[in-house]
Amino acid sequence: MEYPEKLRERQSKMQTLDHDFHSAWGCVYSNQSTLSEASISGLWQQYADDPATVDRKYHMLLHEYTTLFSTFFDGYYPISMHAHASDALLPTTIASLVLNTVATSPLVLNSPVLAPMAHEDPKATGGRIRDFALDFLGWNTAHVQAPNFVVAEGIYGAGFGPLAHTSKEWEVNAIASGPKPVVVDLRNATRDSLNATLAEAKSQGCIAVVCDMVSTEDGSVLQPERFALLKACCAQNRLLMIVDETMTAIRCGAPFAFQRAEYAMGEEVDKKPDLVIFGKGMGVSGIAMGFDGAMIKGLTYTKIEDIQQTIRYWRALVSRPVRLPVLIEALGILRTAQAENWPERSVEIGDAIRGITRELAPGTKEPSAIRGLGAMIAVDREVAMQFRVMSAIRRRSPWVRWLPKLSRASSDRGLLVQKVFGEESKSSRQILAEEASHHGTMPLWCFICGIEATSEDWCKTCYLSVCNNEVCEQAFRRHACI
After folding, report:
1. Three-class secondary structure assignment of the chain
2. Where are the domains of the chain?
3. Per-residue pLDDT of the chain (482 residues; tens, 9 = 90+)
């Protein structure tokens, strides 16, 4: 069936903006394909025509990605690649990565006492270096055989594994496995109480503290003074500091949210997180290491060749850190983020959306009514329902997340009113509905709970759908159309 020309013309006027602020749980930064980036477009074409030739460029492309990442994220290197952020946030993975970083550090390899020796018994070499690593980190057998984390209360944690114990969603909590992390209340802790908790946790096998900058539970922001306190207490207790930026990277006003200006002032500014978890819209998930992090900097990684070497050693432990098509896509995303300055644009987007929301929903003018940073916005569930916006929702939370695309159109107040918030968005939604009907598709996300929409009985007026859960279906039938 030929695609209607009229519908194609109308669709082209949408300017990549619609009311999907779900964005696949934040996995989509832009509706624009990375093909719009000229060099990436050429790579894709070459990969389609002659994949073997592009495959021979694999290490060159991976090196380019690593270098661009470290430049964009101000000294953090993507040392470990994973399919999902939950794979990266495993205590055993972090423990092995850090032990490898110690074992391959200048502190070891440049030491006449510690460095591997020719014709030496491998067991003697391994034992000597391992003993040094444990002493440097303040670890014992418990930290190696049963490592654990301390986590900030309210953190999302993970979709599975040990950190799923922290979830308030029973569906996630029910499948948690591994040791339960130690939970700390960062909002109310004093320096003494936090130090005492971390000291006890370290003695029991905890190797790191994990926090996020914006809570996925209610959108509350980790305040600069709390962040500084956590850095100080981690350093005092020789615990690695891990910031989970899976959701907040790029869309919160800085490459990583903790790199915003307010977190780079005051006390403890010299102490930096050791590791950062990234993923979602980045195109690939993984662990970024800061070689000048509070703990890691003691390993004296001052030369770029030493950093590159330890990264190669770690990546050599797997057959390929990341598949070639994924690498090309991730490289295109990062190039576009840099070229278009997405961190700066995220602030403009956040300001525009917050301004419209406060104007159209006066109740949101209260200081804490709209939370989050930049283009990671948390609002009351009823506000999202009022505006008929598809949102990233945690089922049992009264707060929902708006994760708009980082295109220029998302910062245009007039377009936002026309395409998303205002009554006039009805015509744009109906264009989407016509397109969906033509292709036999439907809106992607359940308007009520945020998971995949599955009901064939969706709203053609508002371009909204629902899953087949009975509770969601009943609530969906009560929504008021535009």
Report:
1. CCCCHHHHHHHHCCCCCCCECCHHHHCCCCCCCHHHCHHHHHHHHHHHHCHHHHHCCHHHHHHHHHHHHHHHCCCEEEEEEECCHHHHCCHHHHHHHHHHHHHCCHHHHCCCCCCCCCCCCHHHHHHHHHHHHHHHHCCCHHHHHCCEEEEECCCCCCCCEHHHHHCCCHHHHCCECCCCCEEECCCCCCHHHHHHHHHHHHHCCEEEEEECCECCCCCCECCHHHHHHHHHHHHHCCCEEEEECCCCCCCCCCCCHHHCHHHHCCCCCCCCCCEEEECHHHCCEEEEEECCCCCHHHHCCCCHHHHHHHHHHHHCCCCCCCCHHHHHHHHHHHHHHHHCCHHHHHHHHHHHHHHHHHHHCHHHHCCCCCEEECCEEEEEHHHHHHHCCECEECCCCCEEEECCCCCHHHHCHHHHHHHHHCCCHHHHHHHHHHHHHHHCCCCCEECCCCCECCCCCCECCCCEECCCCHHHHHHHHCCCCC
2. 5-35+341-477, 44-338
3. 445 554 444 444 445 799 999 999 999 999 876 767 778 989 999 999 999 999 999 999 999 999 999 999 999 999 999 999 989 999 999 999 999 999 999 999 999 999 999 888 999 999 999 999 999 999 999 999 999 999 998 887 677 888 888 887 778 888 888 889 999 999 999 999 999 999 999 999 999 999 999 998 899 999 999 999 999 999 999 999 999 999 999 999 999 999 999 998 877 778 999 999 999 999 999 999 999 999 999 999 999 999 999 999 999 998 789 999 999 999 999 999 999 999 999 999 999 999 999 999 999 999 889 999 999 999 999 999 999 999 998 777 889 999 999 999 999 999 999 999 989 999 999 999 999 999 999 999 999 999 999 999 999 999 999 999 999 999 999 999 99
The dotted CATH code for 44-338 is 3.40.640.10
pTM of the model: 0.94
CATH topology of domain 5-35+341-477: Aspartate Aminotransferase, domain 1 (3.90.1150)
